[in-house]
Structure prediction request, 124 residues.
Amino acid sequence: QVQLVQSGGGSVQAGGSLRISCALSTSINSFSCVGWFRQAPGKEREGIAGVPMSSGNTHYSDSAKGRFSFSRDNTQIYLQMNNLKPEDTAVYYCAARRGGRCYTPLKGDEYNYWGQGTQVTVST
Prediction:
């Protein structure tokens, strides 16, 4: 049974930093894709960072480039968020895909396992 368990997040003032983590119940090499998504109230889910394990290259959304950094080890993935803005306020989710091949790592439909979600709140 694959499980993704998130930790971290919380509240911070604009300009601050946070890191969120996602523990995988199995080796990261058993997945074809891992990534981070977020969903703000009243908005669609947005892919912000994703990695097809076949290439190991990290894909970032425009909103994340230059401020967010994806990292990983054998059993965890991380999202370091710097220079946070109020518009980054959202519930953040980690995600993983097992089986098949990952073509679009920033699209939620690619993934079949999800973390429980972590609230990130950025105040002015």
Summary: The chain has a mean pLDDT of 97. The two ends are 41 Å apart (CA to CA). Residues 23 and 54 are 20 Å apart (CA to CA).
